[in-house]
Task: inverse folding
């Protein structure tokens, strides 16, 4: 039953409907309170619902349930970012990168965490690394904008100039 509830909840999450997913995921967690997948899915759900503190707690429990699995570390990092706990977030993203290198978005999240701590030079290096692999989307726009503002790259040429 818990697996069926998790599958239904995950389908709702994948459809961008965290409020519809929550009851099934909560019920699954009641049936299997230490299940890694149930904890992780509910953590993702809570992040989508802007409940970062609860998401962080759930991600921590998921990490305790399955210490070698990196997804819980990533969700913990996102939860810490949302709570402006930048040093903790940065450590989560570094740990995630050690466990599962190659995620093209991880340098962006590291950059955000470093930026939040006021470490502009290190943040710029992470943003540059991110932009080598990703040039589209909100994250790329943020990274590019910061690099222009900080003088690491030239602003785009103005039309008619």
Result:
């Amino acid at each position: 039953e818990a697996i069926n509830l998790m599958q239904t909840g995950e389908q709702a999450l994948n459809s961008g409907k965290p409020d519809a997913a929550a009851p099934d995921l909560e019920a699954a967690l009641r049936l299997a309170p230490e299940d890694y997948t149930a904890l992780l899915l509910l953590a993702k759900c809570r992040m989508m619902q802007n409940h970062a503190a609860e998401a962080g707690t759930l991600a921590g429990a998921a990490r305790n349930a399955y210490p070698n699995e990196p997804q819980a570390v990533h969700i913990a990092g996102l939860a810490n970012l949302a709570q402006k706990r930048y040093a903790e977030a940065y450590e989560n993203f570094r740990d995630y990168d050690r466990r599962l290198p190659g995620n093209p978005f991880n340098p962006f999240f590291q950059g955000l965490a470093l930026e939040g701590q006021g470490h502009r030079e290190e943040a710029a290096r992470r943003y540059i690394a991110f932009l080598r692999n990703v040039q589209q989307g909100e994250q790329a726009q943020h990274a590019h904008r910061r690099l222009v503002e900080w003088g690491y790259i030239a602003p785009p040429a103005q039309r008619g100039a």
